[in-house]
Fold this protein.
Amino acid sequence: GDSVTQMEGPVTLSEEAFLTINCTYTATGYPSLFWYVQYPGEGLQLLLKATKADDKGSNKGFEATYRKETTSFHLEKGSVQVSDSAVYFCALSGTGGRRALTFGSGTRLQVQP
Amino acid sequence: NAGVTQTPKFQVLKTGQSMTLQCAQDMNHEYMSWYRQDPGMGLRLIHYSVGAGITDQGEVPNGYNVSRSTTEDFPLRLLSAAPSQTSVYFCASSHMDRGETQYFGPGTRLLVL
């Protein structure tokens, strides 16, 4: 079945540091790929998405490129801020009719001033 | 639009009690789903629905029932609560098109004693 693997956390960075959170997936066909963010005490919000190979999703300075050849969708940001501290989830939506999301286990990011 | 709403925000149950978690959306989404979030495990799908009158099981359905009598509402019923059902529950909705963003509610935190 479908699965998503993302790097373990927590990731602790200083403000203005470069961020990479790795995400790889296993799925049949061509899934859609997502990054969701969860701030403390809140639900999940879509951060960015990509629906086909080589697409780049971007939002709020974050980027991720859908790499079919390496089955990856790594999240990057050039300069993190304290306000980026949250839990980040990589997820995929398969090509079947269910439309359910398969999530990675989440990566907690802590940004220190 | 209120988006996806969930009630209650927090609930404490005793083992064996039953309860219903409410979920509603006002975006005319066909697809609705329930996930549970447990530490280190990401979110796992409990049940989902692709339209009024149509529901199906997800990854972890045991101990939960759902029904979908209207497009807007998708309640989750715990028949006889167990401590293993202590978790945070999220409802989500989306259109059925491939790659559509799923919108999440704020969550219900459930503690079963």
The CA atoms of residues 84 and 111 of chain A lie 7 Å apart.
